[in-house]
Amino acid sequence: MLTPEDGPPDGSPAERAARIGGALHRLTGREPVVEQVGGGAFRVTARVTGLPDEAVAAAVLGVLRTGDRFGHSRTGRWERLWAEVGA
To answer: Which domain of life is it from (predicted)?
Structure first.
């Protein structure tokens, strides 16, 4: 989940995306990709192969919900989690 060290929940889309990316990195152990996707929006994408327990899974969902839009897709090898902020 986002913590006080992540800063306030408001801010520019770039700042919000950076906070979401930092929180996902801490929770999943993988550096997510943060990219501008057009119209001033940013997308944060993280690949995960599994989460250690339900508490971490709930925290990851809590972080994703701080985006304006979020979702996931699945392959046979991993899940791709994403959140978008801005436009």
So the answer is: Bacteria
